[in-house]
Amino acid sequence: MTNNHPSLLAATKVTNLIKQHAADAELAGELTPQQIQLIYDHNWFNLYIPSELGGLETPLPVAIRLLEILARADASFGWTVTLC
Question: Residue 51 and residue 46: Cα distance in Å, rounded?
Fold first, then answer.
């Protein structure tokens, strides 16, 4: 299991960071630098990219579970990862 596996998001540290910055992101109309860094740290913008190109090559069912967890923490955050 990699450190990007959705089951590890159950750790409150990740979801709490997303939630902690949700109000600031809403006011600013964009994700906070901390939220963006979290996305880059986990390589979530490359969920579907093949591994040989630096992506996670995440199977669709796993990606959907991940996106659901992210969206539950903050819908805008989850939407951004989904679209990018």
Answer: 9
What whole-number distance in Å separates Cα of residue 37 and Cα of residue 31? 10
Gap between the Cα atoms of 23 and 11, Å rounded: 21
What type of residue is 83? L
Q: What is the pLDDT along the chain (84 residues), one digit of tens a residue?
A: 455 555 555 567 889 999 999 999 999 999 999 999 999 999 999 999 999 999 999 999 999 988 988 999 999 999 999 998
The pair of structure tokens assigned to 10 is: 């159950």
Predicted structure pTM score = 0.82
Of 65, 5, 79, the closest CA to residue 35 belongs to 79
Tokens matching residue 39: 């996305």
